[in-house]
Amino acid sequence: MMSPENIQRIAALVDTAAMNRTEIDQLAATEPELTMEAAYQIQAASVERRIERGERLVGMKMGLTSRAKMEQMGVHEPIYGRLTSSMILNNGAAIRHADLIHPRIEPEVAFLLKRDLSGPVTPAQALLAVEGVCAALEIIDSRYRDFKFTLPDVVADNTSAVLFVLGDILQPAEAVNLGNLGIVMEVNGVPAEIGSSAAILEHPARSLAELANMLARRGESLHAGQIVLAGGATAAVAVKPGDHVRAVVDELGVAEVRFV
Ligand code: OOG
Ligand code: MG
Prior knowledge:
Elements: H1 4-20, H2 36-52, E1 57-63, H3 67-73, E2 79-84, E3 88-89, E4 94-95, E5 104-113, H4 123-127, E6 130-140, H5 151-156, E7 161-166, E8 182-187, E9 190-196, H6 204-217, E10 227-229, E11 237-238, E12 244-249, E13 253-259
Parallel strand pairs: 1-10, 3-7, 4-13
Antiparallel strand pairs: 1-2, 5-6, 5-10, 5-11, 6-7, 8-9, 8-12, 12-13
Helix pairs in contact: 1-2
Residues 61, 63, 106, 108, 138, 140, 229, 231-232 line the site of magnesium ion.
């Protein structure tokens, strides 16, 4: 088991890299005790440091829930991370590319919770806690050199979380065909990735239930008012200054950002 001192030491390392937008070497090579359990403890401790600086926990994210993402990253198991208030952008916001390390962007579907949600739950039960769903874009920016990591590495690095944007329209989950919404991610007006919400563990509600269930195994749960990103529906795309990216999701509308 990794000692509390080592958890804190590595949490400080990944938190500082995220704060200063600097690259670090993968941990797995030099930290033999980096199990998945230790990685989730490091993630929690690193986000605790953000909270101590005044950020608020606003929700959670699932990662590696689609085959496209698993294959792109060479990591084949869903993982979760934490979203804080400093990561939310207004829809249409401009992001300074130079403030990030090597950002990529991916289209997602987001849930807004109206009730607390504790696992174990089924996907149908999980939907009872949902106020509505909206289109989303997640910008990921792994702190690891060359965007390469093992599963425990990426979990310790809060699953590459850096920024996200939600579309303006919230639809009740039962009002849309949530299990198969067409998704087009346009870069500068050209479709760059095309997919469906069906790519997210076959149905985004499965991703939400899986998140509640994974959290329950660690004694945690989801809360009313929280945002949940269900996971990228397509591969992520590297962005450059000048790019205008839109996620157009059937029935949910558009989430968009610009890089300057
Ligand atoms: C890890 C984060 C994965 C998703 O939606 O699959 C993720 C990464 O790809 O860097 O956010
Ligand atoms: Mg994502």
